[in-house]
Design brief:
Aspartate Aminotransferase, domain 2, lyase, Cys/Met-Metab_PyrdxlP-dep_enz, about 375 residues, Aspartate Aminotransferase, domain 1, 2 domains, PyrdxlP-dep_Trfase, 7-stranded mixed β-sheet, 12 strands, 14 helices
């Protein structure tokens, strides 16, 4: 089956004949008939259906659902790492992920190296020594660098490293990291997968030899997903393919519009020929995604004024929904980074991040144009 079909298809309930997955809102199951599930923190039929869904979409051996994207990341790392292990990340990633690796894991005795932005930097570091785990975002947040997963995976395998890829920005529609050589793929399912800004969830898919260990850690830590949230995510995934088709197209057109706008100094979007990783993006992505960032002519106050001046686009700290959302990374998603850390990755105070939705492209262009023209 192709992605659009996989996203829609659900198993029919054998007992009731229900054509959508029921919400099993229960803490426990009758013994011995329900021994497979026992307790909903450990296993729940609705949640397991979602885990199966991400496994199918990513062509993985196994999938697991979590209470959030950060729950998926932290549980995966804690399951696979031990004190004195070596980890490689890149600096230009979601602020909370960066803090988890550089603050918590280091305090736990794990050695964490962070490469500067760019494929050549992380590949060079990957070659320099044996890392137990390498964690990357396939498209980085918020500067949209595109990691050459295929090349990085080759080196990781040569070095005996586990490669974990956060593919939230790409989604299984635009990229399947496991097919490029990664061992594990992570998603904040709250974003494009669920797609409606109404659920918090995380997903992991990959090889069973790793996922079995991660699932045991999930049961221990309690980073389990609620069945109602699992149901909402399953429902959202049904339209993933058609949403991403529109979102990819809208984002490309908005990036082109912004690149020519006199109030914009730079646009970061992998679908633009001006993007530093454009050739890599064409190689490893089937679509360029729904997130772009751009720098406003002026300072932070100008950027914030643009964000306050939009009428259709929503100023908020999220992304991946059907509604277009704009944010100011320096004071929102990456506010936990110091000024020096932001400078190191090129995150300026005039940068805005735009998550493109499925609205009419002309309405989005008019809204952005009006907001940009509000600054002098």
């Amino acid at each position: 089956m192709r992605d659009a079909t996989k996203a829609v298809k659900e198993d029919i309930d054998n007992i009731t004949g229900a054509i959508t997955t029921p919400i099993y809102q229960t803490t426990a199951y009758l013994y011995p008939e329900g021994e497979k599930y026992r307790y909903s923190r450990e296993a729940n039929p609705t949640v397991l259906e979602l885990a199966k869904k991400i496994s199918e979409l990513e062509n993985a051996e196994q999938g697991i659902a979590f209470s959030s994207g950060m729950g998926a990341i932290s549980t995966t790392a804690l399951a696979l790492l031990r004190p004195n292990n070596n980890v490689l990340i890149h600096r230009d990633m979601f602020g909370r992920s960066y803090r988890f690796f550089t603050d918590y894991l280091r305090s736990w005795g794990v050695s964490v190296d962070a490469s500067n932005p760019g494929n050549e930097n992380i590949i060079e570091m990957c070659k320099s020594k044996k890392y137990d785990l390498i964690f990357v975002e396939s498209i980085t947040n918020p500067l949209l660098r595109v990691i050459d997963i295929q090349e990085l995976a080759k080196i990781a395998k040569e070095q005996g490293s586990i490669l974990v890829v956060d593919s939230t920005f790409a989604t299984p529609i635009n990229q399947k990291p496991l097919e490029l050589g990664a061992d594990i793929v992570v998603h904040s399912a709250s974003k494009f997968l669920a797609g409606h800004n109404d659920v918090i969830a995380g997903l992991v898919a990959g090889y069973a030899k790793y996922l079995t260990i991660i699932d045991q850690m999930r049961r221990t830590l309690g980073t389990s997903l609620d069945p109602h949230a699992a149901y909402l995510t399953l429902r959202g995934i049904k339209t993933l393919k058609i949403r991403m088709d529109v979102i990819n197209r809208n984002a490309e057109q908005l990036a082109e519009f912004l690149e020519d706008h006199p109030k914009v100094t730079k646009v970061y979007y992998p679908g633009l020929k001006s993007h530093v990783d454009y050739e890599i993006a064409k190689k490893v992505l089937k679509g360029f995604g729904g997130v772009l960032s751009f720098e406003i002519r002026g300072n932070q106050e100008n950027a914030l004024k643009v964000m306050r001046s939009v009428r259709l686009i929503i100023p908020a700290q999220t992304l991946g929904g059907v509604n277009s959302v704009i944010s100011h990374p320096a004071t929102m998603s990456h506010r936990t980074l110091t000024l020096e850390e932001r400078k190191a990755i090129g995150l300026t105070d005039s940068l805005l991040r735009l998550s493109v939705g499925i609205e009419d492209i002309n309405d989005l262009i008019e809204d952005l144009d009006r907001a940009l023209n509000s600054i002098t």
